[in-house]
Amino acid sequence: MTINVAAATELEPLHNGAVSRMSTTNVAELSRVMSSYYGPVRAFPLGEEKFGVQMNTSRNNDVVVGAVRARGHRLERTEALIGDVDPTYMNFGLLLAGRGYVHQQGRTATLGPGAMFMNDPDVPYSLAFKESFHLLYFLFPRKMVGLSAWSLGGIVARAVQPDDVLSRFVRPFLTQFDRSFGAVEERAGTRLLHSALDLIGTVAHQVLESDADGQPISVQRQPLLQQAKDFIESNISDPELTPTRVAESLFITPRHLHGIFQPEGTTVAAWIRERRLEMCRRDLSDPHQMHKPVSAIGERWGFDEASHFSRVFRSAYGVSPRRYREQATA
Fold first, then answer.
1. Mean of the pLDDT values across residues 185-196?
2. Which CATH superfamily does the domain covering 2-208 fall into?
3. Sheet containing 53-60: which strands, arranged edge to edge?
4. Could you tell me which CATH number the domain at 223-328 has?
């Protein structure tokens, strides 16, 4: 399904599996479309060139991918625009051509061709390009890459430059999303998108573990919080994974561990449950795993009782695992 926004009198919602292709010279129209797909934002033209933009946008369940070719302009999300934004989401951008900057939480990152960056839609920010540019970006729930609101604050407006070793692995893969809108079969596209988010998560965690100059922080200085999350991620499928076991792996007391998680606004047990549910949700939305029983997916990620899995999943997502699979793969 393709939506031609430029020809539509009323902006259609971006349905799952749909591709929207927009071309306009009206900056107000860009603001309207961006606000519909990515949350409230305002666009302002920059430079002396006549304004123009071409944008492709696609949606796969909770993930939106967009590619923009445009003349110079600035995007702003102010405090007044944030009220309707879902605070569980995050943005990831890869600048393919052009130069600009992203500003958020008192930090400004200069962007050139090949730079990758992240920002938090729940916090005011600005993204600006004085001349023509080409940008690929992803909007997705931050829990899909294992980030909390607290950890997201440590990575916004910090660019990963193209000469970074990790960037050399990640950029070629992500760039294919710009070249293949609507060209990949939906089930394969879902798996490719999961791989892309895994790579984005790797980039995000590298930024968290680096100082302001991009240099790795020594293991001795790494926050215990991140070490705990890494241990949880490595053992998430084990039904015997408990806060006590996580604490023992770090040679600290369970009480100390709970204190580390407290600023996150969650508990260790809740974080384990959320990560398990996210992995289950991901498998349930994968058409290639339709042959697997729902209970088997729950067991794979540490839910050894089908009734408990169904109850916890429904509490988190509002529908049963079976119904979620039906909706996600329809």
1. 86
2. Jelly Rolls (2.60.120.10)
3. 2-4, 19-24, 53-60, 63-70, 133-141, 89-97, 116-119
4. 1.10.10.60
